[in-house]
Specification:
The structure is a single chain. By secondary structure, this protein is mostly helical. The chain contains 1 helix and no strands. It is rod-shaped and about 120 Å long.
Length: 82
């Protein structure tokens, strides 16, 4: 009978510990979820900026090619003008 009482007391203590740990797990899970949401948002922003930078790079490259073509055309026109 004594062992049964001791086991009951241990069960109460363990249940209290479990309740405390559950609260901690819930809080940490919520914090992790918030952090993951923040990371996902930052990742999307970074990907958007990267896409914009790539597009700007292509645009700059196209403009450089157009300027080079115009320069060659002007040089050819100047040669033929003489």
């Amino acid at each position: 009978m004594t062992k049964l009482v001791e086991a009951g007391e241990q069960l109460v203590v363990l249940n209290d510990k479990l309740a405390t740990q559950r609260v901690a797990v819930v809080e940490k899970t919520a914090a992790c979820d918030a952090l993951l949401t923040e990371i996902a948002s930052a990742t999307l922003k970074t990907e958007d900026k990267k896409t914009l930078a790539v597009d700007k790079g292509k645009e700059t490259e196209d403009q450089s090619k157009a300027i080079e073509v115009e320069k060659v055309q002007k040089d050819c026109s100047a040669v033929f003008a003489f």
